[in-house]
What we know:
Shape: globular
Radius of gyration: 18 Å
CATH topology: Rossmann fold
Number of strands: 7
Mean pLDDT: 97
Bound molecules: NADP nicotinamide-adenine-dinucleotide phosphate
CATH superfamily: NAD(P)-binding Rossmann-like Domain
Helix content: 40-55%
Order of helices and strands: EHEHEHEHEHEHHEHH
Amino acid sequence: MATRTVLITGASSGIGEALAQEWAEQFQNDLIILAARKTDALEQIKKQILARLPAKIEVQKLDLEQPKSIVDFVQVLTAENHIPDLVIHNAGLSQRSLAKETSIDVDRRLMEVNYFGTVYLTKLLLPHFLKRKQGQIAVVTSLVGKFGSSMRSGYAGSKHALHGFFDSLRAELAAELGPDAVPITMICPGFIRTNISVSALTKDGSTQNTMDSGTGGGMEPRECARRMIAAIQARKYEATVGGKETLGVLLKRFLPGLFTRMIYKAKVT
Ligand SMILES: NC(=O)c1ccc[n+]([C@@H]2O[C@H](COP(=O)([O-])OP(=O)(O)OC[C@H]3O[C@@H](n4cnc5c(N)ncnc54)[C@H](OP(=O)(O)O)[C@@H]3O)[C@@H](O)[C@H]2O)c1
């Protein structure tokens, strides 16, 4: 297989870190660019990978909440001739608070990081994909990008919005370049054992700082990463990853009344 440049956002922990480890293991010729705010953590992950594999890894700072950081990031990629062949939009921020109590600033921050940051980065990479007439995009959303649940209103909104944006973009790119030129895979994880609930925002914007039981009992990030990579390689339009909670997507589609009543009763954490 030809050597690719693969960009993984949110690679400093959890699923992104696991994706970096797995990608380096499976595709040793690819150049992997690890991006996030915590470059020390990224450097550490790079070091760990290079200690056991002959991988090619670059580290770049990226803050999706700051448009200038996104512009600077793409400028560096362009200058270094590292525009990715594949971008895995994985970075994200979650929420644990009731809608009625949550400051609108928290909703805006979730949209800024999860939605606008991802969309802006995509828009800056798109001209390169269009010029090359090829590229590949994967977007890590969530099961709550497919259905809402308690304590996640702003997070669910931001993840639903990603589905709307990228489904539309997929149609536009297929019309302009043909259906296979820029595959877009939407990946919806369920419970994965990472720090997502620890760093989740609460009603006033402070972080929750505790691990939820659902997340703590979730799938191992490396297993999640392997399944995500399989979906990306198969160029699937959409994939769910997780345990039995992923059945919620099918239940909502085929038995929406039953599913809605089940969501009412779901434990609020
Ligand atoms: N774990 C789950 O159960 C679960 C379920 C559904 C969906 N997901 C999704 O999976 C993705 C990865 O999350 P995770 O579970 O691996 O959680 P995580 O361990 O908290 O990782 C989140 C990553 O996002 C990055 N990030 C956060 N804010 C950022 C910003 N402003 N700019 C750039 N990067 C930022 C973080 O890096 P820095 O702090 O270094 O910037 C970190 O690398 C997220 O999109 C999340 O919504 C997770």
